[in-house]
Structure formats: structure tokens, C-alpha cells
Amino acid sequence: MALGYLCPMNNTAERLYTFPFLLLCISTALFSGSFNMMIPELPNYLTSLGGEDYKGLIIALFTLMAGLSRPFSGVLTDKVGRIPVMIFGTLVCVVCGLLYPVVAGVGGFLLLRFFHGFSTGFKPTATTAFVADIAPFSKRGEAMGILGISMNLGASITPPIGSWITAIYSINTMFYFSSILALLSIVILLNLKETLSEPQPFRFSLLKLKKNDWIDRSAIAPAIVIMLCYFSYGVILTITPDHSEFVGMANKGLFFTSITVASMCSRLVAGKVSDQLGRVPVLKVGSFLIACSLLVFALADTSFMVMVAAACLGFSSGIVAPAAFAWTVDRAADEEKGKALATAYIFLEIGIGGGAIISAWLYSNQPELFFRTYSIAGVICLGAFIYLQLFTRRNKTTTS
């Protein structure tokens, strides 16, 4: 049943927790849950198809398509509107959940994973732009933090449910359930009013991107930090299901619950702190802690230690994400928020995809190489902290 169109909140208003904002958060949680619930079971599923050596591509292909589609989602978000782009991205999840049970072989599965990447290539870009439209400027970091909590809520609740459904019923049932969650997300989106002031009808000529449509230069600095920090997620999504099984964790989905619950806790305050103290100081703390958390993973040899490492990484990433995306919007022109956010998400996908491919290569399905893989990943993520130090020093030099 439709809830009726809702009036977007004006940027000059002081209230953040409006009805449109809360509805968007619910829709985001359902969207996140629809594709995250699959992740713990996909490595074993691919192995059952005979594709054990292609585990790194489970995440890499997904993020590759997401990254390739970001420039298009950014332009369409700024031209056609936030709502249509969000609906399209979520609809991809509906379709893919229905197709996983019917695709044949390793090749078909990997092709579908590639197509599935359209979902996160479109939905988060438009969602973040929508939030930037309706959130008060003074609470932008807080708004990004709450939006991230919504994303993490779906990611924390559904992986154990997905593993449970797979164990009790079948993996195909789990795929169908993921489609239902995405469909519910669309139903909510249909009850939100467009916030773009003058949306254009979609036409294919909008997909002919110009050179300056691909990357927004204002977003480069936060995008580099996002790329280096989210390298850790590519590593975790690729090898930690095997790591969890190696240390005897019965329900691999509990690992993802730990990482996302911890992230939710830090997001509750990190975004607000970045509104008060600035984005860069908060990002320095978060990026350094991410590197340290990967060292904890490297040393984890029990289920308890893996859960502790997951909590450390989740807490650290919860500090980084709201500050990084608020910084992206802060630096962007009002009429190019979508393009700036698309740039940030492109770099995010590069980080996750690179982490997936490199970690799969370093790990090579050999448990004794967990330490080496996590340690190298930690050094790469430390690059974000070093970059921020150099960025701060350069800005002091140019303004002195």
C-alpha cells in the first residue's frame, strides 16, 4: 500500500530525523541485507560448482561492475533524479536473486556476479545524494553515519539468516529470500518524493559521457582515503569465510554480524564528531585503526580472536566511512553531488576489488598464508593514514 508522497526536508531545517530520512534508512537496510546475506555461502557454493580457484572473483567481479557503472549512476543521479537511480539499483538485486538458482556452471555464476554489481553501482550513489539533499549542513556527518548504520544493519542481520536458511532449506531458498528483501526496499522507495529540483526524463544520450563526467576532481582526496581503507574489505570478504571455517566457526555469518555491529556503534558518534572537529582528524584515527585491526586478523587463531578482529575492523571502518563521504559532499559543487559521490564510490570499488584479487593471490587457498596476507593488507591500508598526514602538511604549507 502506498504511503503517499512525502515532502523533502529543506537544507536550512535543523531536524535530521524526518520521516523521509527514516524511510530511506529502512529501504537501505533491506537493500544491504539482500546482497550481503549471500556472501558467507558463496565461496563454498562456487567450490561446489568446481570453481575453487576463482574465489577472488566473487567480490572482484561484483565490484568491477559497480565501479564501471558509477560514472553513469552519478550523471543520472544529477540529471534524471535520485529515486529512479535507487530503484534501478535495487531492482538488479531482485532479478539476480531469482537468477542464481538457474544459472549453470562456474562461467554462468561469475557472469551473474558481474551483472549483480550494477546494484551497488547505482543504489548507494543516489541514496547518499538524497541524504545530502535532505540533511542539514551542520549534521551532514551525522546523517552519513546513520545512513551507514542502516547499511550495516542489513549487513549484520542477514548473513547469519542466510547461512541458517541454507543449512535448513537450501541455498536456492536463500537466493529467493534475498530477492524478497530487495523488493520490499523498492516498495518503500516508491513512497519517497524526488529531491532533485528539475529532473529530466531518461534518454540514452545521457549515457554518452564526456571526459569530465567520469571523475570529479574535488572528490580525489577523500576518494584516495576511501580506496586505501576499503582495500581491507576486499581482503575480509574474500578470505575470512575460509579463515572462519579454519578456526572452527560453525556459522560464518556471525563474523559479518560482529564486524557490522561494531561499525554501527562507532558510526553513532563518529559522524557527529567529524561535524565538530573536522573530517581529516577523524579519518586519521580511523585509517590507523583499520591497519591495526588487520594485524589482529593476522594473529587470530581461534573463533574468539576472529570475532575480536572483526569487531576491531568494524569499529575502525565505522569511524572512516561517514567522515569520508561527508568530506566528499563538502568539497563538491551542489549541482554535482552525484558525480562527486560516484567518484568516491569508484575508488571504493577499486579498493575492494583490489583487496579481493590480491588477497586471493597471496592466500592461494593455503591457511598457513593467512598471516602474510593480512599483514600485507595492513601495510596497504596504512597508506591512507600516511596520505592524510601528507595532505595536512601540504595544506598548511599552501595556506601559510
Could you explain how this protein is built, in words?
It is built from 14 helices and no strands. The N terminus is likely disordered. It is an all-alpha fold. The protein has one domain: Growth Hormone, Chain: A, CATH 1.20.1250.20. It is globular, with a radius of gyration of 20 Å. Helix content is 76%, strand content 0%. Helix 1 runs antiparallel to helix 8 and helix 12 runs antiparallel to helix 13.
Helicity, as a percent range: over 70%
Tally of alpha and pi helices? 14
**CA-based gyration radius:** 20 Å
CATH superfamily assignment? Answer: MFS general substrate transporter like domains
What is the terminal separation in angstroms?
59 Å
- Provide the β-strand percentage band: under 5%
CATH architecture: Up-down Bundle
Outline: globular
How many strands in all?
Answer: 0
> How is the CATH topology named?
Growth Hormone, Chain: A
Low-confidence stretches: 1-12
- What's the level 1 CATH class? Mainly Alpha
Profile the largest sheet. none
Query: Which structural class best describes the helix and strand composition?
Result: mainly alpha
**Secondary-structure element string:** HHHHHHHHHHHHHH
List the helices and strands and how they pair.
Elements: H1 19-36, H2 42-48, H3 56-79, H4 82-99, H5 105-116, H6 118-134, H7 140-168, H8 171-189, H9 220-246, H10 253-277, H11 279-299, H12 303-331, H13 337-363, H14 370-399
Provide a brief overview of the structure.
This protein is mainly α.
Which descriptors would you attach to this protein?
single chain, 400 residues, mainly alpha, Growth Hormone, Chain: A, 14 helices, 0% strand, globular, disordered N terminus
